[in-house]
UniProtKB/TrEMBL annotation:
InterPro entries: Anoct_dimer, Anoctamin, Anoctamin_TM. This is Anoctamin. Residues 301-871 form the Anoctamin transmembrane domain. Pfam families: Anoct_dimer (PF16178), Anoctamin (PF04547). Keywords: Cell membrane, Glycoprotein, Membrane, Transmembrane, Transmembrane helix. Residues 75-298 form the Anoctamin dimerisation domain. Residues 49-73 are annotated as: Disordered. One of its GO terms (cellular component) is plasma membrane. The keyword Cell membrane applies. The chain crosses the membrane at residues 312-337, 472-499, 511-534, 555-577, 679-701, 729-753, 827-857. Residues 56-72 have a biased composition (Basic and acidic residues).
Amino acid sequence: MSHIGFEMQNADAGVAPAPNDSLYPTIGNSAPNSVNHSKMNPIGFEAAEGQDNDATETKVSLEHKGNPKDDDNLFFNNGVDRIDYILAYEPGTGEEETIKEKRREYFERELEKEGLKLEREDKTKSKSGKVCFVKIHASWDVLTKYAELMHMHMPLAKNDMKIEFDTCFSKCPTPFDLDKDIVKLDDDYFTAPFSRMRMHQFMIKDRDSFFSNAKRSRIVYEILSRATYEKEEGVEEGRRKFGIKKMISNESYDAAYPLHDGKYLSEHSILTRGKKNDRHLLYEIWAKWRVWYKFQPLDHIRNYFGEKIGIYFAWLGYYTAMLIPAAIVGLICFIYGCATVLQDIPTAELCDKTKSGNFTMCPLCDKRCSYWKLQDSCSYSRATYLFDNPATVFFACFMALWASFFHELWKRKQIELEYEWDTADFEQEEEIPRPEFEAQVRRLRTNPVTKKEEPYVPLWSKTIRYFTTASIIFFSLCVVLGAVFGVILYRIIITAVLYSSEEFLLRSRSTLVASATAACINLVIILVLNQLYLKIGLLLTNMEQHRTETEWEDAFTFKMFLFQFVNYYSSIFYIAFFKGRFIGRPGAYDYNLFGYRQEECDPAGCLIELCIQMAIIMVGKQAYGNFKEILLPKIMVWFRSRSAKNDKSDLTVYTRWEQDFNLSEMPQLGLFDEYLEMVIQYGFVTIFVAAFPLAPLFALLNNIFEIRIDAYKFVTAWKRPLAVRAQDIGIWYGILTGITAIAIVTNAVIIAFTSEFIPRMVFKYFYSNQTSQYYDFSLSTFNVTQFQSQSIPDQTKMEIFGNVTTCRYRDFRNPPGSSDEYDYSVVFWHILAARLAFIVVFENLTVFLTWLIMYLVPDMPYAVKLQMLREKYLVKEAHFASETTKQNNDEHRAKQPYY
């Protein structure tokens, strides 16, 4: 359902298609002839009277005319033809420039053959005196022809059954609502794929406004992407070199872009004078920092930037809003930990010299490390309790359900947007083959659906390409694991060095220092490898030769997410599930890691290290991304604008097309980086939330800024991107679903095996009457005379401990001297059984509640379903009406006398 805002009035008539129009006609086809249609059709749609095409092309209201001396002019020099696209290039010298000039001439001749109007601006007319511009205008005939070929949905009838559910909350004004006096909602319409044969049935107010700027630019780009620029001798028609992307890559043109609607700033307040243009409106109500708390104007974003960008901001806003309850509950759990940390009995015993704090602990590294008192871990234990307390278990269960609710409610929202924005059947019906696919693939076959010859990649070729891709991906993932392995070695070595220090402060904080510095190093490695994997992902995806843009994006997204998943999460998985698990025990340490003894967890557990690792990587990544997104585009725009203005006198007009040329280019991969950043963040929020309950809060704060940063970039710092259509968020939804499933398992395992929750519960309910202190229960005893030779501690540092005969270590084993000394004790098996039971109960309960949510929450809202049925009915009636009119006309002509 398009929100274009046209009124049902008499309109100009349409153009009938030529009988032999193909799906994508060859360059140079003549324009179809115009015909007249009746004013009214049998089902009651108001139609338009036919007019001459040429007359309508020159019929422009005074407010639409452009002034060539206006720096916001959006028209040709005649003040009539609107600029739909701009091609820009900086001419050079030499033989290479001659080749580029020939390509440009050939390319532009092909555009003119297709019906586009071109107007050229010499470099002497630019502010910089260096850049030439080619302005492109699409006529009415071209727009209607390609609107039909591209299956564009246009207004057919007003929506007469818009259902609004008024509640107490919806009637109450909130500070988050947009000002309705400024942001006026467009009327809703039922829409249908455009047809020139039935043009009289569509609601056309006038030809100048029937196609929005976004639709006009998308049509022109479709022609640009298929126009040829060079033909090799002896090459068949379908093998010619074509496409604006190739022209930019071979530097024949420097840029190709649609124009922004004008300046985003105005000397007058939007409250008193209203919007200057759509760009100004979006800046005032969406991109300004002072409106950070306002709802997003999604329909306006979609109309200006297209459905693909609109659905990204819809998803980002929805995700951010859903983070609010998660952030509140996580903050409450953290506050609970802060409020009860001094009342925690095991931690109080650990910090008491007269109790568990006086235990002599076994050295944590070989040779250089000495014995130490458990009390040295007091601050570490208190910090761990802030994130490892009974509230954490509740929060993990809450987040599992939160993720399920998020998926189901977003699915409903997405279906609603698909209908509202006319993209429900886009991927099946509207999407066309990629020009690169048609240019690269030489094998042809008949499409069983369309019965037309089209490029085809056979199964054996796909198998070879995918096998090659999988092999390279596997090798790349091994490189990531190798980098993580290097960070682990660094942690082992730096911990040993710090433990051997004479400074007590360094010895007592060695684990924290090693964890923090290793996380920083890991963050740097992640950022470096990201750039490498980006190039590898592009190369592999292009090699696979995907047919459509959606298939290409999905394949590239999956590869890059796989890279990034291992890149960002591998070190965290190591700390959560592997650190301290395979070290052996005193007297039988494992030295298989290049002869090094592996890391141990603190007696309070590894959870605080996991929390540190997550906080540094998550917050550091977001800080780096925001710094790059805010400052870099602003600096580049300022530099280019300054250079342009300084090179010419003030008498030269700084035109709108040159102002936009000096803006930064939207990244080649479009929204991929934005989605990837948010999905990686979603992984931190869900997969490891049991270790870091504040993750949703940090994510919420980041996303509030992220929405406005992205909005500011799109409105002020970037060239206006092509208004690309999209049906949904693509493969990202499947990735989010997979992350949610992983999160249920990881949170259960983290609580069961990484945190101290299960051992504490077992001690509290089964063993507290036998042992008075938790750490006496959870720490095993070792006879120091049984140390391996390489792990005997430094004798020079042992005098402060006196004559040490036994030391304690973190495990559940039988004491020395027993018949089965150092074997796992009965307590170990009791705790293991409790851990496994917890995982089974946690996962099954979460899966059941998730299924219940999916069952109770229907995918499609009832109101949307009714409107879809109504729209299908109207489209069917419009087809019948068209056939009836055609039949009546044929019968009328048959009765006319023949001369």
